[in-house]
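Tutorial handout. Part one gives the primary structure; part two gives the three-dimensional structure as tokens.
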Amino acid sequence: MGGLKQQAARERSAATWSLARRQHGVVARRQLTELGFSRHAIAHRVEIGRLHRVGPAVYAVGLPDLTRRGRWMAAVLSCGAGALLTHNSAAALWGFGKEWGRGIEVATRGSSPRSRPGVRVHRRPSLRPGSVAERDRIPVTTPVQTVIDLATQYGRSSLERMISEADQLGLFTPPSLRAALPEHAGEPGVAFLRATLDRRTFRLTRSELERAFLPIAAAVRLPVPLTKQMVNGFEVDFYWPDLRFVVETDGLTYHRTPAQQAEDRRRDQAHTAAGLTNLRFTHEQVRYEPDYVRRILAETARRLGVCAS
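Part two.
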């Protein structure tokens, strides 16, 4: 009989270590109970140093020191079944954001205490199943849901940086993010995120671009440029042959394929090799930042011998 008990104890211990390895070194009391540990058995293992309390009803197995992911997992486990990382903690786990020392942020879809030591709890009873994912076995809001949540906390430039980094990490593209927004209609942050994406992917038609750009060029006393001209084997947007000066414009500043980027580099290299001065602006800059474009054009015009205003 004693041999059977010892065998069962060894099996429970092995199962605990296996679970802890999957969960970055931590287990919850409820999980230990499901493995067959009594309250007394748990207390005994805490006393002898096999378990170390790292949160409400959460224990580190073996050693008390946890990695960052271990701390994230401990925070999630402390908030009960169904809890997951959210907001800044979720962005940090995905790799496109940072935590700011305000505690690990956890969402719970059920009843949960308002706070835990070192944990900020967000009650999210209406969180959609499609907004839940796992990364490194840690429950977390999806990248799209995470960006939507953070859109209420950050200004445009910070939000753009996160979207760009998520794009570079292959988590989503700006077009796919924009396409996902209707599924989140009514959520805080969606309207601002949509406005940010619409602005950053803004592209003028050729006639609109000319109507917006030509007055800026005229304001710094550049002569009227040629448009749609072939220069060094490429069709350029604006060309001043007497000044040997080319201006190119780009749309979709967030997401350009490697082939498009390579094409832009070839254009710029061809113009530089031919001795041309070449500037590249985005459509967004022409439309929304005309003062910046005017300043750069004025400095360039002076260098080219144009008496700019």
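Part three, for discussion. The longest strand covers residues 234-240. The mean pLDDT is 90.
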